Amino acid sequence: MKPINVGLLGIGTVGGGTFTVLNRNEAEITRRAGRPIRITAVADKNLELARRVTEGSGARITDDAFALVRDPDIDIVVELIGGYGVAKELVLLAIEHGKHVVTANKALLAVHGNEIFAAAQKKGVMVAFEAAVAGGIPIIKALREGLSANRIQWIAGIINGTTNFILSEMRDKGLPFAEVLKEAQALGYAEADPTFDIEGVDAAHKATLMASIAFGVPIQFERAHIEGISKLDAADIQYAEQLGYRIKLLGIAKLRQDGFELRVHPTLIPAKRLLANVEGAMNAVLVQGDAVGATLYYGKGAGAEPTGSAVIADLVDVTRLHTADPEHRVPHLAFQPDQLKDLQVLPMGECVTSYYLRLRVQDKPGVLADITRILADKTISIDAMLQRQPAEGEAQTDIIILTHVTVEKGMDAAIGEIEALPAVLGKVIRLRREELA
After folding, report:
1. Which domains can be identified in the chain, with CATH numbers?
2. Can 206 be counted among the known catalytic residues?
3. Average pLDDT per 10 consecutive residues for the chain, totaling 437 residues
4. Of the candidates 292, 246, 320, 239, which has an alpha carbon nearest to the alpha carbon of residue 75?
5. What single DSSP character describes residue 130?
6. Which one of 106, 206, 254, 300 is the catalytic residue?
7. 398 to each of 70, 192, 288, 333, 366, how far by Cα in Å?
């Protein structure tokens, strides 16, 4: 049978991994797909790198990505350039020319996905993006197909390896954030400019895509609540450990009757949970469905071959359905396009969770009573408390409070009143807590 011709845009880390795995496992992949899948053209500004990676393959090399996309012999365009700019132009051009698209670009889809999927639907082509979320973990396929019998209730994921590595090192070594970030950059886990990772933006891109597929709603990245780990204090990691918790940067999506929560932030998780024990640069996603219960997906969230594996899985899927009636393909966001619900992301003040609070206070009688009174007035009940014994001669101490579940706006009001107390020194440190039970 005639091979499927693939045009590869970008042959950096993931592009190189895709090329290597596709060639190494060509026979096995052909058996699965039903016909050969071949990268016949590669576009990259670094022609020397492209020639080196593709040496002996016969693939045509060019630095003109637009010419490759317009090539009538190309059946599938794989976009691995990244970013929002030229990548969007190329993807939309490929769709306009009737080509299927495979991409690992979570930022592009989180910001422009609604437009891209609508264009693909109109043209009758597929846009596949397994590699855009959690690298080699097949979480998109699980949400879109494997769990299609379920009403997905919530998702909680460690979906950024850089931040998970940093948090693991901070906990194990007791080091401050800035020092561990330098280590992560030296080891290649963090970029020279790590902003998207450490400030939670990358995780929010991925959480947004998972929420849309899980709940059958349009992509709403601009409404996501995003907090990173750059302001996280090593002391809070140690206090959490004493209380039986570990801190992870989680991407969380929760379905509610009146909308859904979409948030990324450092989160306390009970140390006994499997998710709390995901260490280093690994990723894991926990999905709660009404029929299946909790399912956990774990593996490498980045890297040349793990992410390349996901790209090739999409290539196989697209190849199998290449000649199928577009109406009988799996929809981009799992639900039929005219069946997406108009559910909105809830404001953060309406979100419901429990909290970890750290207060620096003067060590004198009545302080704790004032704090507990304010919490009680806001109907916030205390689950656990830890008070550090001040060192000899110290007039200040830390109080750590874990609360039961409450609405965020009530906690915001309580923190405002607590910070106004004369005995409370500075800002209250607030972290959210999820039991994930």
Report:
1. 4-135+304-337 (3.40.50.720), 139-300 (3.30.360.10), 349-433 (3.30.70.260)
2. yes
3. 95 96 96 96 97 95 98 98 95 98 98 98 97 96 97 98 96 94 92 95 98 98 98 96 97 96 98 96 97 97 95 97 84 94 96 98 93 97 90 87 98 98 97 96
4. 320
5. G
6. 206
7. 63, 35, 36, 47, 15
